[in-house]
Amino acid sequence: MGTTSTSLSPRRPRGRPRKMAAPEAVTTALRLVDEEGLDALTMRRLAAALDVQVGTLYRHFATKQALLAAMAEEMLADCADPLSDGTTWQEQVTELAGRLRTALLRHRDGARVYAGTHSIGPNTLSYADTLVGVLRGAGQSTEAATRTALAIIHFTLGHTLEEQAAGALTDSDLSAAVTTLHAALDPRHYPNLAAAEATLTSTDFAGHFAHGLNLLVIGLTATR
Amino acid sequence: MGTTSTSLSPRRPRGRPRKMAAPEAVTTALRLVDEEGLDALTMRRLAAALDVQVGTLYRHFATKQALLAAMAEEMLADCADPLSDGTTWQEQVTELAGRLRTALLRHRDGARVYAGTHSIGPNTLSYADTLVGVLRGAGQSTEAATRTALAIIHFTLGHTLEEQAAGALTDSDLSAAVTTLHAALDPRHYPNLAAAEATLTSTDFAGHFAHGLNLLVIGLTATR
DNA sequence: CTCTTTTATGAACGATGTTCATTTAATAGG
DNA sequence: CCTATTAAATGAACATCGTTCATAAAAGAG
Fold first, then answer.
1. Where would I find the H helices in chain B?
2. Residues 8-37 of B with CB under 7 A from strand D
3. Which CATH number is B22-61 given?
4. Which of B120, B135, B200, B215 is the mutation pick for testing A, counting most A CBs within 10 A?
5. Nearest by CB to A132, which of B126, B192, B198?
6. Mean pLDDT score, B140-169
7. pTM of the entire structure?
């Protein structure tokens, strides 16, 4: 066995050296979103943060949508990590859904970033594969498991969209919204909502999430 | 009984006569969205469709977000219509969730419009009140009913977001996406997703929606 | 040293949300 | 009839945005 064909000398290719690389751009973009919000993420601002001209970004991302898709992919890292042994499939489903919510919450406007794209990168695929696998292992048919996984993901996405929308409000905006809602909730017109006001204005989003997710898991257990 | 104090002479107020009114602007904006999509909805294009200058719009809507909120409100008309008599609460919950999905599907990008806003207009409030009322009538506590209503709405929103995102693709874009997904689904890396491919690429969104909603309803029935 | 290739630059284009001083058109009052 | 007042629309402008492209720069290959 002589010298193999593997490239042992990673000689730089020809051409001008790169000032930026796509992965770092994605990381920086996520940092900008964390600091200023998704609406403030501009190709120009990202370029400035990378010490690069705007046009350079378009050598690495065909469009801003492509950048957002790469960001969505990056956000889902670790979501498909191995599950703890000795846990029931109900616990595993709950764990996986919670990971997705946590991943979206980790970055400001994370749910908006994710909702606007449709990445099929390895992180997204691994996560979906793991979730479908747990459901199939729970006795569901492939079709039922797939549809259930979609339901879980869609619920989590819809929930986190609203959770982050509420969390993005300033304290004064939040109290103003609560006041406006209170004024609108005439018990004569909306008796049930008036009774629900305390829950509606609650900030216990984890509790809300757990409630909806638990409904799904119980439904799963009953239909197995 | 003589003349009442009700305004029998709706004399026009002083000032230049109006060329436009907010409700018509909302209707026209929804028509533009139907025809060209949300991304093509521009304050300038809406102004042109109303035969008005751009600045005029800002007399009726403080910002584009306010316009979108009014559009979201309008979309939910009829969603809180009376429910049929002699139906179980399970059927009523299913009916209400289906109405929301249908309302969002009625306009192109309807889910995106709704997700980007947070209106507390009468249509939205009536709908939520009706849904919470059905759940309370089913024996849930006020808090549980409220949280369940949120879960149903969030699931429906997340589902319809993806349904419309998929439906917005052209035939060639759709088949390209299917091909790309097929190429990515290496059974060695994603065995469960590879098995799920047929369901994942299915266009039976009504079936997907019914599956997820049914899980929630069964979960509700079991926890009642 | 010259060719080739890759990358970054810098400037520009059209379009967008928003603002505002000005003008127009109607009513109210004398 | 005339003038003040008021509501609304106009028209132009501003700062930014995503995107494109001809050009320049910087490296290896021959």
1. 22-36, 43-49, 54-60, 64-75, 89-106, 110-115, 122-137, 142-167, 171-184, 191-200, 205-223
2. 13-20
3. 1.10.10.60
4. B215
5. B192
6. 97
7. 0.94
